[in-house]
Amino acid sequence: MSRKRKEISEFDTELQEYKDKYYQELRNDKHKIWYSDKILKCPYCPDSREYSHSDLLRHADRIVRESKSATFKEKAKHLGLIKYLERHLSEKIKCVESTKTTTPKQNIKRHLSDKIKCVESTKITIPEQNINEELFVWPWMALVANIPVEYKNGKYIGESGNKLKEEWIKQGYNPVKVHPLWSWRGHSGLAVVEFGKTWDGFDYAMTFVKAFELNKHGRKDFYDMYRGKDDKLYAWLARDEDYNSTGLVGDYLRKNGDLKTVAAIEKEDQVKTTKLIMGLKTQIDEKAKIGEKIKSRISRADSKMEIVMKQKEVMIDNFNKGMELMQEKTTKQLEKIFIEHEQSKRRLEDREKKLRAREAVNDIERRKLDSEKKMNQLAIMEQKKADERMLKLAEDQKREKEKLHDQIIELQKELDDKQRLELQINQMKGALEVMKHMTDEDVEAKKKKDLIQEDLKDKEEELEDLEALRQALIVKERKTNDELVDARKELISGLMENSARSHISVKRMGELDGKPFIAAAKRNGSSKKETIKLASLWENHLRDPNWYPFKVITVDGKLEEIIDEEDEKITSLKAECDNDVYNAVVTALTELNKYNPSGRYPIPELWNTKEKKRATLKEGVEFILKQWRTHKLRKRGPVASPSFGVSVVSFLGLMENSARSHISVKRMGVLDEKPFIAAAKRNGSSKKEMIKLVSLWENHLRDPNWHPFKVITVDGKVEVMSLW
């Protein structure tokens, strides 16, 4: 068996299984079909109209055979419905006991046989003709005659086609279109009723015509010359004799229809069904081929995926090995650095101990030297006192000598020698006391002390000079900072009315944004008054200096302040309001804590809207310069705002002014090349040498290590002057 036949058999088997399944559901009364004794509805069509038993069979058969939009399961459901109608409902309807199958062809034969019986009952004989060979106008059409007309304004007028169509729809015939036939005299009293091309349309057309024939208002009755006509309508199905007739009827039928037999129409339907089945089979084959291709692609993709996964595993292994090696190297390096750090720490601690010990020794030596100085002073004082006592004693002895000169003249020499010897002994004792404290080590210490004092004096003088230079630089820095602050304030005041959509604008840091409150109010359906009240409440909370909902945490060894989410007000805000309102309050609170924590009120600040950060003075100047140049090129264009124009002119108006003017802009620190050019002309140097010399001195000027200045005091003020 070929694959194509196998797929068809599998398709039929699956269809039969679903058909039996839905048939059993109908037998078990899971779906409702009967709505009255004569009215049935399709349980699988949601907007199903009311059917008779035969109409419901034709409906289900049409879904199975003709519907192109019905799915596989929908066709299986209607096959189960056909099986259920044929087997179980025939007993309930006596009029269809003899009906075993209800195909479209048999419906046609039944309607034609009913028509023949109806004609025979009216005692009108018609020639026998094969039903399948009888010619009908297709699409199915019926002719209606004897429509009431009225002569008015020179023409005949009658009822419109839409009105007739609505009446017949109410009667259940469902015509597609009603077309009255008009001539040059007006309404002809004839109309063509179209029922479409479907078998349901044929059924409606036959029912429509049969109703008129039963009332003896058919074609034969209309053309019966011996019968008087009443004012009722006559109707019959359009056939070949109507199609080939002359006049309005024949012209309309030839223009809008064709003559076909039932067999031909049935054959066309079979051809269409066959083409549809063949097309579906072709699509199935194509889908199968596509499925095979997809399967082959999937298999190739799976093989490639396996290769890629293996490569990925190898790469991951290599990466892990590399990471392990790197981690080992990093660990070893960290251990080495830690050991070196510990060694350096120990060396520093030892050095600190030595310095502290040396400091203690120096204190002891200084105290010892002070005590020795005091001892020397005491020794000198004792020597002076001894000298004074000796002089006084000598005077006393001299006076005694004068008084007792006669008595001791013999012992005078011995007494003088003794006095001289005692004086020498006392002098030697005093000198000995002085020399006792003046050793060689003390002299060296004194020399060291003198040298240290001289060095200390030099260092103190140098320190005084550096302190004076530092004070001068601090004064200069303060002046520069004041100028930068004034320039930033001028920028802020000039850009105050600038649009917030600009690259650089002024933002009030700490100001509460009201847009999230308005958006939240719209979402929650709150009133404008409640929104303003809520925003004002949080404005007051932000201005309260006693409310400080921040906590300090450590991140990477640094202290940072973050919002304390456990704060009572923050918790209530997060629970009661939307995230947009919460973020707006947190943003304003963070900005206040960063830019004005003491005042707790909004302050204007230059803001970079593109990078969402505080703009530098350089960015503000570049922005104003760009705006000023753009405004200069568009002299006739509109100015952004008066204050912005004044700010630009006041801040940058001198940037391109001539240097010959009274007030201009000078680039401080730029080397003037004119003296070099004049010197080169005087000395006959080349231009290349002159440029080389200028570049050399520009490099010297850019060198931060070259500082050819000294600090002097002029009139009590510290000034910095060059060394030349």
TrEMBL record:
Q: Name the GO terms of the biological process aspect.
A: gene silencing by siRNA-directed DNA methylation
Q: Does the keyword DNA-binding apply?
A: no
Gene3D superfamilies annotated for this entry?
XS domain
- Which of UniProt's keywords are assigned here? Coiled coil, RNA-mediated gene silencing
Which ranges carry the Factor of DNA methylation 1-5/IDN2 domain? 507-632, 666-719
Read off the CDD domains from this record: RRM_like_XS
- Note the superkingdom of the native organism: Eukaryota
Residue ranges that the Swiss-Prot or TrEMBL entry lists as coiled coil? 331-358, 384-483
Domain named Zinc finger-XS: residues: 42-81
User: What range(s) does the XS domain occupy?
Assistant: 133-245
Can you name this protein? Putative domain XH, Zinc finger-XS domain protein
Q: Which organism is it from?
A: Artemisia annua (Sweet wormwood)
